Amino acid sequence: MRITLALIAAASLAFVFARSPEERTITDPATITSAHNADARPVPIDDLFFSRGITGASWSPDGKNIVFSTNLTGRFNLWKVSASGGFPVQLAVAEDRQVSPMWSPDGKWIAWQQDRGGNEAYDIYVEPAAGGAPINITNTADVSETGARFSPDSSRMAIGWKPTKAPTTDIGIIDLSTKAVRISRTRRIRRVPGAPSRGRATAARSSPIARTPTARSARSIAST
Fold first, then answer.
1. What CA–CA distance (Å, rounded) separates 140 from 162?
2. Which residue, among 183, 164, 163, 165, has the nearest Cα to 174 in the 3D structure?
3. 125-170 residue pLDDT tens
């Protein structure tokens, strides 16, 4: 028994400390077996349409409710369920995906991101937690806003801000009282001559969205 354990340990150490993939023992597929289920059958195509998913759960600040996204009705929309259990209640209805819900710290609002026709150019929406009509607070067809996170006082929101034709995502801050957005971009740091280079360095630079082509749409939202 001790000899067997020693051999297993030695084999394990040899695998762990192998210096390259070429030195590792290749598993023979013929040695892999799994239990056979005599009652197994092919999955009918119709059954695949009954598969449901749940994503992005967020607790209410008082811990009494959970908001999440599910395709229970065929589309990923927003639902809410009591933390004590029960059947969920649908909060928002749309033909487009509603994902990444987030409860505001004051418990008054629920935010999420929603695209248009599956184009993955998301807008940020909010809705009163007690119920009400959804509000599109970004409404920018040429910019994708994602990953909304409320400030501790629920007055502002941090988002990922990415023009659809841009290669990178910046950080945006939304003032929820005015719907104005401030963007924190990155720029290269000017190096001191003779200073050692340690790769590409960036520094944050804040600028209001009013200086960008999407400013007019942001202002029109704030005026509504």
1. 11
2. 183
3. 999 998 889 999 999 989 999 999 999 999 999 999 999 898 889 9
- Residue 199 region by backbone torsions, left for phi larger than 0, else alpha for psi between -120 and 50, else beta: left
Q: Whole-angstrom Cα distance, residue 49 to residue 209?
A: 42
Q: Do the beta carbons of residue 121 and residue 143 sit within 8 Å?
A: yes
Closest C-alpha to 99, from 120, 81, 83: 120
Cβ neighbours of residue 80 under 8 Å, at least 6 residues apart? Answer: 65, 66, 67, 68, 88, 89, 91
Measured distance CA(110)–CA(133) in Å, rounded: 11
Q: For residue range 100-115, what is the model confidence (pLDDT) as tens digits? A: 999 999 999 999 999 9
Cα 115 from Cα 98, distance rounded (Å): 7
Is pLDDT at 1 greater than 80 in this prediction?
Answer: no
Q: In order of start, what are the domains of the chain with their CATH numbers?
A: 47-190+201-222 (2.120.10.30)
CA distance 33 to 42: 20
Q: How confident is the model at residue 179 (pLDDT cuts 50, 70, 90)?
A: confident
